[in-house]
C-alpha cells in the first residue's frame, strides 16, 4: 500500500513535468505543424545557463528567471531565423532542421559548459514529508514542481481563452490564411508561439534538473521521448490532452518502474506510443475529426 | 469587344471617399455603363494590367477592371477562368508578375496581406473560410481584432443581420451548415468595417433560397451603407441579377465588361461564357 501511494505520487509529479514538456511540443505543433525535436536541447541550454549563474553565487530564482527569459529569446530567434524558411514547405524539411538543431545546440552546450555531469541543487528541500513512520514521495520541492506546472497550465489556458493575443494565436494556428486576411499578423503570432513554447520547455528543464540532481548536456534526451509520447497520447493538437497524456504516462511509467523493472521504463513508453498509434491514431483528445468536417 | 477601361483619373478621385455617401443607392444599376470614365463613378478598386502565374501556367493575363463606389461588380466566368486567382492577387495572397492594384487611389500591389483590411478591404475567401475550431463568437472577434476594442453593439448589429448565427454564437464553427458559415464569414468581414468587400463564390453549394437571401442582403448593404462589392461567381444568373456591372473572364483575360442587365440579355455571350 505504501509503495502504491509513493509510486502514484511519484508518477503524478514526473507526469506533471512530462505534461509541461508535452505542452511545449503541442504549442509548436498547433501553430506550425512541426514537432520540435530540438526542444530538449533548447531547454538543456537554458538550464545550463541558469546553472552557471547559480554556481557563480546567484540565487536559484535569478537563475530560473534568466532561464525563462533566455528560453523566450532562443525560441523567438530559432523560429525567425531557422524555422521560418522551411515553414509551409515539405514536412520532412522541418523535421530534419529541428533534428539538426538538436545536435547543434547539444554540441554548443558541450563547448560552452563542458560534457561533465554537474550537480543541480533543488530550490527546496527534497526530503519527503512523513506520515507517522512512513516517508511520502512528496517533498517541498516536488510541491514546488507541481505548483509551477499548474501555474503555467492555468496561465496558458487564461492566455488562450481570455486575451486578444491568445485569440489571435489560436486563429493563426487553425486558419493561417483566413487570419492573415482578417489582419492578424500571423508571422508574429508564430514567433510568439515558439517563444512561449521555449519558455515552457525551459521551465520543464529546470524542474527536471532539480529532480534528477545531476545534469549533463544530454540530460533532456529522455525527456523529449517521454514528452513526445505524452503529447501523442493526448493528440498533439490539444493542450488539455498534453496535460492528461503527461500525467497518464507519468503514472504508467512509475508503476512499471516500481512493480516490474526500472530498466523497462523506456521500452514501456515506446510500447504505449505504438499501442496508442494502433488503437487511436489521433490520440485520446484528437481534434482532427473536427478539422476534416 | 473587350472594353478595357484604364481610367487612372477616376482612381485619384476615389481618395477622400466618405462612408456617409449613401445617396447613390437609388441609382441602382440603371445609369452606369461600366465603360471608361463615367464622370461620377469613383473607382474604389482599380486593377490595371494584372498578370499572375502558377509556375509556367499563366492564370491572369493583363486583367484590367474596376469596382465602383456603392456598386456590386460581378466577375464571371467558367471554372479555371482565373476568378479566384484575381481576388487572391488583389489581396496579396498571390504576388502578381505584372500590373498594379489601386485601392482608393493608393498603390497596394506590394502591400502585405495583413495590411489590406486596415486599408478598408475585406476578402472573404472561397469555401467559406470559417475557422472551424473557434466558436461563432470567436470567429467574429477575430474579424475585429485589428481594430482594437470594438463595442458589443457592433457584434449585435451583425447578429441582427444574421439571426441564424446568433442562436449558434457559442457553438464551434464546424457544426454550422453551409449557409450559416457563409453568413458568419460575411458578418465577420463586415466587422472590419470595409469600404470594399471581395466575395469569392458565396453561392457555392448553397440552396437557391439561401443564395437569394444573401444576395438580397448584400444589395441592401450596398444601397444603404455605400459598401462596394467585388463579387466572383460561377453562378452567373444569380450574380447578374444582383450586380450593377459584370466582368467576364476567360482563360485569365477580360472578355467583356458591361452593365449587368445588358450582359444577362446578351444571348451569344451567355452561351459562350456563362453557361445559361
UniProtKB/TrEMBL annotation, chain A:
Protein known as: Branched-chain amino acid transport system permease protein
UniProt GO MF annotations: transmembrane transporter activity
Record GO biological process: amino acid transport
Classification lineage: Bacteria, Bacillati, Actinomycetota, Actinomycetes, Geodermatophilales
Subcellular location(s) per record: Cell membrane
Entry's transmembrane regions: 6-27, 34-54, 60-82, 94-115, 143-162, 189-208, 214-233, 264-285
An example Gene Ontology CC term for this record: plasma membrane
Keywords associated with the record: Amino-acid transport, Cell membrane, Membrane, Transmembrane, Transmembrane helix, Transport
Domain of life: Bacteria
Membrane topology: Multi-pass membrane protein
InterPro entries in the cross-refs: ABC_transp_permease, BCAA_transport_permease
One of the Pfam families matching this protein, by short name: BPD_transp_2
Family to which the UniProt record says this protein belongs: Belongs to the binding-protein-dependent transport system permease family. LivHM subfamily.
UniProtKB/TrEMBL annotation, chain B:
Single Gene Ontology BP annotation: L-amino acid transport
Biased composition (Low complexity): 1-16
Listed GO MF terms: ATP binding; ATP hydrolysis activity; branched-chain amino acid transmembrane transporter activity
Domain ABC transporter: 45-276
PANTHER family: HIGH-AFFINITY BRANCHED-CHAIN AMINO ACID TRANSPORT ATP-BINDING PROTEIN LIVF (PTHR43820)
Family listed: Belongs to the ABC transporter superfamily.
Name this polypeptide is given: Branched-chain amino acid transport system ATP-binding protein
Organism: Geodermatophilus amargosae
